[in-house]
Structures are given as C-alpha cells and as structure tokens.
Amino acid sequence: MQNIKTLGIIGGTFDPVHYGHLTAAECARCAFNLDKVIFMLSAQPPHKKRQDISGSEERLTMLKQAVADNPAFEISTLELERKGYSYTVDTIQYYLDTYPEVNIYFILGADALLLINTWKEVTRLVRLCQFIAVARPGYRLDRSDIAFKNVPEMLWENLHLVEMPGNLVSSSDIRDRVKNGETIKYLVPPPVEQYIYKKGLYRAKELNS
Questions:
Q1: Closest CA to 72 of 109, 39, 104
Q2: From residue 91, how far is each of 10, 11, 41, 108, 189 by CA, in Å?
Q3: What is the pLDDT of residue 209?
Q4: Which of 33, 102, 110, 173 has the smallest C-beta neighbourhood within 10 Å, fewest atoms?
C-alpha cells in the first residue's frame, strides 16, 4: 500500500451489500480523510448465528459490483481465506504487522457498540486502532447511558461518531423484502439488484435473522 497513511476497514458478510454499507464507508472516508477503505468480506462472524449465508463467491461478486465506481474502495478476502471464525482483532493485527506506518480506523455501526464487549480480546482490540461509529443524524454516544455500560473504557478514547444521511437499511431487511416479493430498488446498487434476481438469492430458504 504505497502512499497510504490512513486506512479504513469495514467488515461484514455483505449478504447483500447495500447503500447503507457504501454510504457509511464514504461518510467515514470523507470525515477522516482516509486514503482507502477496505471492505473486509467475512466468512462466518462468530456473533452471527445464521447458517444460510450466501456463498462467498456470490457475496464477493455483489461486493465487486457495488464498489467498482469508487477508486477509494477496495475488497479484501483475508477473512474468507482463514479457517474457522473471523475475528476483528486478528484482522487489525495483521494490517498493523504488514503496514506498521499506516493509521487504521475500524468502521462499524453505532449499534454494534452494544455488543463489542463480546468480541474476542476486546481489551487488546480497542488499543490497536481508532474506531468510527456511523449512525443516523441526531444519534448521541453518551458514555453515561446505561446502554453503553459494557463498552470498554479505553474505547471511548479512540472512538469517533460520524453521521450518515438517509434512511438506514439492513441486509436482513433486503433479504426479507426479496423473500416477500417486495422491491429492493434504490436500496442496493443496480448491478447488485440484478445479480440477486438472476441468481435467485434469498428466495429458496426461510431466513432466520
């Protein structure tokens, strides 16, 4: 990564990738002048219990289509290539070891902070990089709020809030809409929408997430 000083990483199964993911990454990139944002495609995150995640090749294809028009976005299959569960702390450590001169920002949804205490080696993780929490307009990160009682104290020193515009959408919402025969137009990039229908994704099985 030549000439890269600041790097954002946003992880997920991206099943499917949607405008919420892309907007979160772009808002974080602009707010912190990130040179690159890497979309880290997960195999099976330990905190997700869905057993019917779409194939890695299908999710990778959709992700490639979604980020193709943004030169600041890249895709990594590092976690796909690992055996077993994917852990954020291992991914961040890999990038620190490989690119020690780069400042790393991990991008996540603000709601994910409520469960971050369950992540592997969270005490070490919060010391490895900066965190960018992306949230709807008006969202407040109040460390005195009982909802955040399990957030490690050290994380507050490395935590930044970025607001993103528009209505928030989730991958599970999109899967449900496809399953129920509802439109997903303007929720995902057109090539991703076309790919979902072409492959018949999210129709054959009942989704339990």
A1: 39
A2: 11, 10, 11, 14, 27
A3: 36
A4: 33
Select from 2, 64, 58, 11 the least CA-distant residue to 37.
Answer: 11
For residues 75 and 72, give the distance between their C-alpha atoms in angstroms, rounded to a whole number: 10
Model confidence at 206, pLDDT cuts 50, 70, 90, reads very low
Residues 6+ apart with CB under 8 A from 167: none
The structure's pTM equals 0.90
* Residue (of 76, 10, 66, 34) closest to 192 by Cα position: 66
Does residue 147 surpass a pLDDT of 90?
A: no
Q: Distance between CA atoms of 108 and 135, rounded to whole angstroms?
A: 9
